[in-house]
Amino acid sequence: MDAPTSHTPNPRSGRRARIIAFSCLAFAFGMVGAAYASVPLYALFCKVTGYGGTTQRAEQGSATILDQTINVRFDANASPGVPWIFQPNERQVTVRLGETRQTAYHAKNNSNVPVTAQATFNVTPLVAGSYFNKIACFCFSNQTLQPGEELDMPVVFFVDPAILDDPDLKTAPTITLSYTFFPVEPVRAPVAEAAPAPAAARNAL
C-alpha cells in the first residue's frame, strides 16, 4: 500500500488569501467612512461622473430659445433625520426649451430645536441631466432652520434645446427634478433645566 502523500502549503495560495482578507477589511472601513460622509462623497462623485441624473451648472441663460415646450416636475423629500415639511411651491411647470425659469422649494422646521441639513438632487430620466442646466440652487450647501422657521429656496434653470438632438430624448419627455434633505448632524433634544432645590434642602446647606 502506498504511503499517504503529505500536502505542502502553496505560498501563492496563502498570499492570495491575505490579499482577499485585506481587501475585504479595507472595503468594510471604506463603507463605514462613507456612511459618515455620504453627502459630500455623493456630491463629488456625481460632479465627476455625471451619475444619477446630475444636472449641469451654467453661469447664464441659453442664447437659443425654441417654441417647443417641455414639462418639468418638482419632487421633494426629507430623510427621517430631518423633521421638516419640505415641498415645491409648484408641482409642475411648462417651459420653452432654452427659456430661463425660476421656481422655489419651501421648508419649515417642525421641531423645537435648530436643524442643519443639506440636499442632494437628481433628474429623471437620468440621461436628461446633461441638458438640465441650473443657474442657481440650494443643493450641497448647509441650510439651518430654527424651531418653527420657514424658508423659500429658489432654483433657476433652463433646459438646453440640444435635448432634441439626443436620440433617446427626441420626444422631449417630462423631466423630474428631485431634492432630498439629509441631516448634517444628529438632531439633539433640548436639555431640560435643572429644577430648583427644595427650600428645606437649600437651608440645610
Task: Please write out the topology.
Blueprint: H1 11-36, H2 38-49, E1 56-57, E2 69-78, E3 84-88, E4 92-96, E5 101-109, E6 115-124, E7 132-136, E8 143-145, E9 150-159, E10 175-183, H3 199-204
Can you describe what's shown?
The structure is a single chain. With 205 residues, the chain is α+β, with helices and mostly antiparallel strands. It has one domain: Sandwich (Ctag/Cox11 (Pfam 04442)), CATH 2.60.370.10. The strands form two sheets. The chain has a five-stranded mixed sheet, with no helix packed on it. The protein has a five-stranded mixed sheet with strand order 4-2-10-6-8, with helices on one face. The longest helix has 26 residues. It starts with 10 loop residues before the first helix and ends with a helix. About 14% of the residues have low confidence.
Number of domains: 1
Mean pLDDT: 76
The CATH class is identified as Mainly Beta
CATH superfamily: Ctag/Cox11
Spatial strand sequence of the major β-sheet? 1-7-9-5-3
CATH fold title: Ctag/Cox11 (Pfam 04442)
Beta content:
25-35%
The total of helices stands at: 3
* Helicity level: 10-25%
Uncertain residue segments: 26-53
CATH architecture: Sandwich
Work out the radius of gyration: 27 Å
The number of E-state strands comes to 10
Shape: elongated
**What distance separates the N and C termini?**
95 Å
Oligomeric form: single chain
Content-based structural category: alpha+beta
Order of helices and strands: HHEEEEEEEEEEH
Query: Mind summarizing the main beta sheet?
Result: 5 strands, mixed
